[in-house]
């Protein structure tokens, strides 16, 4: 994707909530999807390691988009509150996210 950057991070589910996490994301709110797109997130993938309940997230972010501060958006805060019972979270209910630095990339061919 031209004019993009990537963001990768790890989060953790509370044990036993894998199916509920998937269900909630299968039913993600349209207004949250729109907010993420407005923030410049062009693609967003979340993968589950079933053995550890760890989540790995990968985002492609357009560098030309107007970046919103998601943490200040009411829809984002409501989503965090909605997810807090099944994830490891900070005091404000945001998910505990650990950045994953890039160590290898196989570039796309044109």
TrEMBL record:
Its EC number(s): 5.1.3.32
Q: Which Gene3D superfamilies does UniProt cross-reference here? A: 3.30.70.100
Q: Which GO BP terms apply?
A: rhamnose catabolic process
- Keywords of the record: Carbohydrate metabolism, Cytoplasm, Isomerase, Rhamnose metabolism
Extract the Pfam families matched here. Answer: rhaM
Q: Which GO terms describe its cellular component?
A: cytoplasm
Q: What's one GO MF term for it?
A: L-rhamnose mutarotase activity
Q: Which InterPro entries match?
A: Dimeric_a/b-barrel, L-rhamnose_mutarotase, Rham/fucose_mutarotase
NCBIfam families hit by this protein: YiiL_rotase
* PANTHER family from the UniProt entry: L-RHAMNOSE MUTAROTASE
This chain's protein is named L-rhamnose mutarotase
